[in-house]
Amino acid sequence: MLPLPEHPLRHRLNAELHSRPPIAIPGPEWISYLAVTHTGSSSDDEQKHLAGLCSMLGSGLCPLVEGEHWVLDAGALRLKWERHTEFSSYTFFRRRVAGDTPETTALDAFPADWITGIPGAVVAASHIELCAAAQNPPEEVLEGITRAGTGLVATRVADGAAWLMSDFRLHDGFSRYTIIDKHLRHRQAGRTVQRILEIETYCMMALLAFPVAKDVGRFLGEREKELSNLMDEMSVAGTPEDERSLLASLTRLAAAVEQSATRTAYRFGAAAAYYRLVQQRVEDLREQRLDGYPPIREFMERRLAPAMATCESIAHRQSDLSTRIARKSALLRTRVDIELERQNQELLAQMNRRARLQMRLQETVEGLSVVAITYYGSQLVQYLAKGLNKAAFPGLSPEIAAALSIPVIALVVALGIRRMRKVLAAEERAG
Question: Which of 27, 153, 182, 406 has the most CB within a 10 Å radius?
Fold first, then answer.
């Protein structure tokens, strides 16, 4: 036991390095393969279906379950199940026996009702015949296929340890491969079969993006034309209303393109990843070219690579269109902002003019206020002088007292208003 605490994911990550090992193939064998997408099915549904197969073949069978990797060994019959991110694979093995015909398949040995009940939709299906070179000389097999006029991909794999032949076409829904074993070791034969099946499966999964790319290509063509028309309108737009209308149209166009990019990003990204896996598996086959026959690498480069290049081009085109729309939207938004700033400046200028008018009116009102206050103040002095004239100062003229008080009152009021104005200005500067 380790003296230190372990990371909680250590064992799970280590098991991932050893997951999905190839099945050792000790001799001539029939292999059938199905890859089904996860259409309305879960891992539990698939495992329950596999448990039903155990009951059909014999209650004593004990499948080896390791996470999402499942192996059933019934002697002459074996089944390997793997669950991947987007699909699950079923690989059926059946040993060759005397009396087998070229039409024999591994699926024939399994219950037909159980086969048809596998959950999901088939995306890849293959039959592989693994035979020994001693009983099936490669030259004779190639000559017979050539006489039949079938286009053939033929190559030597595993550094010449085996021969591989296929036309990569569907026959009754299945592609067919012939592997002629010259001196493959048991695990090496299993790895070779697994690589061939993975090449076909990953090829089909990568090609799922091709129809999407075609649809997106048509969509982008329409959106690019729409963007071009909007740019033409932008060059002649003369009013703020026109520019705001164009900006709204560009915003709707950007939303449509971003929605398309979000919807297709995973499919295009997955296609690129699957294509890299296909290239890696082809490299792992370690092919040796046969004169007069294209190898698998050449077939994939001629047939699969253009489709993947199309998907990559459409993905870049979509990203470029989104960038161009964003750039033009920013340009138009700048024009709209500049126009708004100009309108704001005009509004501020009008407000300044109004403020100056109000200031002049206020000064006028202040002048009138001085006159009014002086008038009422002089009247108070006149009333006061009348009272004093009758009470204590008989010779005091009320009119003369009021006249003399007018300059004094006006000066005091004017100085008071001036002082008040200075105090308010100081408070405004401090604020």
Answer: 153
